[in-house]
Amino acid sequence: MSSETSSQKPRVAVVFGGRSSEHAISVVTAGAVLAAIDRDKYDVLPIGITTDGRWALTADDPARMAITDRRLPSVAQLAESTDGAVVLPVDPTNREVVYSEPGSVPKALGEVDVVFPVLHGPYGEDGTLQGLLELSGVPYVGSGVLASAVGQDKDYMKRVFASFGLPVGPYEVIRPREWENDPAAARKKIVDFAGEHGWPLFVKPARAGSSMGISKVDGLAGLDEAVEEARSHDPKIIVEALLRGREIECGVLEFEDGPRASVPAEIPPVTAHDFYDFEAKYIDSADGIVPAPLTPEQTAEVRELAVAAFEAASCEGLVRADFFLQDNGEFVINEINTLPGFTPISMYPRMWQESGVDYPELIDRLLQAALRRSTGLR
């Protein structure tokens, strides 16, 4: 391929890692994306963000980004330098990425046409990175600032869904000052909620994902420990009632004519774990059932609800919507994920594979959707 032809290919910066507790899962996701992206169609620039926030030039080596022998990868292991930094200019007239090391002349890495952020959690999935890219004028995969922030905060997410008439389960929120200033009153608030909805409860960080920091609490004895575990990830926590039923997921993808839903999947009960926690998802590889064994009417309903959730939160690009199909036959939406995992065992790509969109095409569709959009108000 000639250099002239090569220079016409869109340049994709795959940005991964980050400062959240989901750093390692982001690295795994990036490895899967880098392995599958069409190099004949796109030029690729891998950029890792370390746990302390440094943007590092990293090896384009998907094999080193996988979970190996239960060991989680990190950007620090992949960075080409321990102190070099990648800089994206906050200037919509200049998309040239620069790499600098102490004592050396900064080196231009070329312009970036689109960013594929595969960051999970705060400082990446929550609208912060999206705001930086808006200021820089660089198109990016996925939702904008507002939808990303709403999709990260389980409290406001549920408020938005309820305002659009979507079914949500019972929940209570404990804000940082409540627990810090009067833990007894905050504890009573949770106990009163349990009195109304029953034990067990799920205590979660309000703005984390990948099942990080979640505890299933069967009574008052384990409550404080669960709250502190959740607060170690986020000072704002959410308490949810147990919803008895089946866990159903559905993917939404932006096509040229608008968002469409995939076939749904079911997460079966995980016998080795109390619930579908981090270990079950990423270490012990719980198997989802794709497609979910639902009636045609149930499948149509959950797909409709998934697209409705996508639209309610003003999402773009992609979403994985998670539901409970309760024993009474009614669906309740648990949450959406605006940047779902793309690991080899992740449900989002598996659902689209079953829907006729294989992994490379899925990545291509996401990049093309991003390239079609402008930054700014839209």
- The count of strands amounts to 16
- Work out the oligomeric state of the chains in this entry: single chain
Helix and strand content put the structural class at alpha+beta
User: Largest sheet at a glance?
Assistant: 5 strands, antiparallel
Query: Mean pLDDT score, rounded?
Result: 90
Described by the principal axes of the CA atoms, the overall outline is globular
- Low-pLDDT runs of 5+ residues are 1-6, 280-285
What is the distance, rounded to the nearest whole angstrom, between the alpha carbons of the first and last residues?
36 Å
Radius of gyration: 21 Å
In DSSP terms (H or I, runs of 4 or more residues), the helix count works out at 13
Estimate the strand proportion.
15-25%
Helix fraction, binned, reads: 25-40%
Please write the string of helix (H) and strand (E) elements.
HEHEEHEEEEHHHEHHEEHEEEEHHEEHH
